[in-house]
């Protein structure tokens, strides 16, 4: 059987396999959902990625990997305490400095910041029991709404 004749059965349960009008609308919607964001991102100028940004993202990934390994040995509440303390300790000193020294110290902040949300999330859903499926999206939504 031809692939085009299978598509109506996947998308529309009551569609006639020979009638492709519904499938054409689905393909048009898919193409539009790709085209419109591409058009929006085409016009604004693209910022250059600096070395500091790359170092920060690398530190972020390194912090996440280290946390995964550490959670097998150390309790999550202690990891949260250590990482929050690291964020505070490395954000405070650059406030009084100028130039490259302050930026160098700030490059260490993402490695500590990386573990904070996942640890808070796991500690928050712990103990929800049968309400875990309902509570987890609310926790994620609270973080998402706070970011906007």
Structural class assignment = mainly alpha
Give the CA-CA distance, first to last residue: 48 Å
Mind summarizing the main beta sheet?
none
Write down the overall geometry. Answer: flat
| Low confidence ranges | none
Number of strands: 0
Question: What string gives the helices and strands in order?
Answer: HHHHHHHH
β-strand percent reads: under 5%
Count of separate DSSP helical elements? 8
List the SSEs and their pairings.
Blueprint: H1 3-11, H2 21-42, H3 51-70, H4 76-91, H5 100-106, H6 109-113, H7 116-125, H8 132-147
Helix pairs in contact: 4-7
Briefly characterize the structure.
The chain has 148 residues and is mostly helical. The chain has 8 helices and no strands.
Task: Describe it.
Helices cover 71% and strands 0% of the residues. It has 148 residues and is an all-alpha fold. The protein is flat.
What tags apply to this protein structure?
0% strand, 71% helix, mainly alpha
